[in-house]
Amino acid sequence: MQPNIQLGTGGSSNSSAAPGAVQEQQYGASMITESHSGAHCSEMQEIQRDKLKEPCRAEDLPQHTVGAYEAKIRTTPEPKSDYGGGLAQVQHVVLVLSGKGGVGKSTMTTELALALLHAGKKVGILDVDLCGPSIPRMLSVGRPEVHQCDSGWVPVYTDASKSLALMSIGFLLENPDDAVVWRGPKKTALIGQFVSDVAWGELDYLLVDTPPGTSDEHLAVVENLRKHKVDGAILVTTPQVLQAVSTGDVRREITFCKKIGLRILGIVENMSGFVCPHCSIFEFAAQLLKHTMPVDLSDVEPEVHCVFCCVPLDPQLSTSVEQGEDFIKAFPESATFSAISNIAQAVLTSIENA
Fold first, then answer.
1. Contact 262, 232 (CB under 8 A)
2. Element holding 170 (H helix, E strand)
3. 18, 220, 266, 293: which has the fewest Cβ within 10 Å?
4. Terminal Cα-to-Cα distance of the chain (whole angstroms)
5. Domains along the chain?
6. d(CA 304, CA 350)
7. pLDDT in tens, 260-278
8. What is the distance between the alpha carbons of residues 159 and 172, in angstroms, rounded to a whole number?
9. What distance in Å separates the CA atoms of residue 268 and residue 209, rounded to the nearest whole number?
10. pTM for this entry
11. What are phi and psi of 307, to 5 degrees?
12. Strand (E) positions, 210-292?
């Protein structure tokens, strides 16, 4: 019989609460501070005041929804291994953020991981997009059981050399079509377990794929990574017919990073043009669509312009992602390969020279 995921909230709980109730995560107001004054930000104070009026009971949820929370963890421990628990042996941690959905953030995370892998690095991907875990499909790893060793959960490896590791809620659901209908505290608790209980072992880079926006998942990641060195974040956006839309999304992410003291490694403008699959000619979006404009952040502080790369809309990349193939290996001559490789090299240079 498969056990449930054990979700500890990490905060003080009310012992008188009814069984099955979801306990509220106790956030510290110091999680996010203003970078200069040190004053507590109003958003965090608002979260502290926003307590659940009534507990969310498992029996109140639809039965098919409750079934989605069953874990696929093999309880028989693996033999004693060299896996290191948590992030103790992870050298660098990078968050991948976006202000809205549909910009190709998970695709960029996957391709950046593959580019780093082909550069000789040992890489891990932590997928905390709990409501839309797509990276297992992009890497064609299926839905294997998650094993336990003496150091914690063993991530799923995509290759025999164990150079690319992945952990995602997609591996833990009994039915991949079930929606994850969780309130913030339960999401926060699982992210805490992903950070502390996954035996990543030795990694050069851990990429954290986050959901769009700036909400519970992002705060949970930042809070759980406080004792580890996070090297920075990559922001992903797209060009828009209404330039203010994409620019506004990026500005909000920049503000979020400033409030939590997270260094911005750079910005990736995805789908910024089109690569013809027949002639490999790369045309920018502004050349294809008269009213489409690139993201303009010329008045933003110069430190966020460490990396600003344009990645085209490439049918070959789309096909590779859908079929779980390694685009970086299959199309080394494409303009998209060049763009992604440039991002990876810029990230390596920025982090290792910091």
1. yes
2. none
3. 18
4. 49
5. 29-62 (no CATH), 90-352 (3.40.50.300)
6. 12
7. 999 999 899 888 877 776 6
8. 20
9. 14
10. 0.74
11. -135, 125
12. 232-237, 264-275, 282-284
